[in-house]
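Review this today:
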Amino acid sequence: MPTEAKAAELPNIVTIIAEHYRNAKYLLSWENVIFSLIIIVIVSLLAYFSSKKAKLIPGRLQNATEMLVGGLDDFVCGMLGKKGRKYVAFIGTLFIYILFMNLAGLVPFLKSSTASWSTTLPLALCVFVYVQYTAVKELGVFGYVDHLAGQPRGLMAFTVILPIFMLFLHIISELVRPISLSLRLRGNIWGDEMLFALLAGMGLGGLPMLFFNTLIALLKAIVQAIVFCLLTTVYFSLVLNHEEAH
């Protein structure tokens, strides 16, 4: 990451350690990975303790977890139907993981890994690969090609040019999706990180705006996690419900 970009960010655990210990400079290259792993540990611990001693009358943590899982199940199955149940775990995990990474930037000395394209692109590629796998599994190779070509029938199939054009257009669309999905998330979270650093540099004069921006950033962290998973669900929907739609 360029020095100018690093200078514009708020200090975090990794940058502080790297500044004080010369032998720890290499940590800067692993900064986003480190914070991603921290979130994995936090989410894993929450999942463990919320399910460790499940009770018929749930406690606060178990109740909150069950409400979240139930909400995600209703959200995904509401869009994908009965077939969506098998994708709840994947989409739900994405939502929780991205949400916690987004919120990490609001905690002092932590950083949102989703402010980096090196984090959001792999997440989007996971979605891309899984959607393509699902499409081939559900429709078959030739069925998927037919789907990408716009399911040409009758005179449309004999024009040849139009189906080929539709196939080319849909292939480009599929390839662009992970880029747009990852850049949308990265751009929004990175913008908040830069704004926080700018307002913090204004001293006491920037406190009112810093407080206001924290509320907005909190809302955006939730919204961006929802948007990412909403689009992921839509991509699955285009494949799973394609035959029903026609």
Remarks:
- Residues 3-245 form one domain.
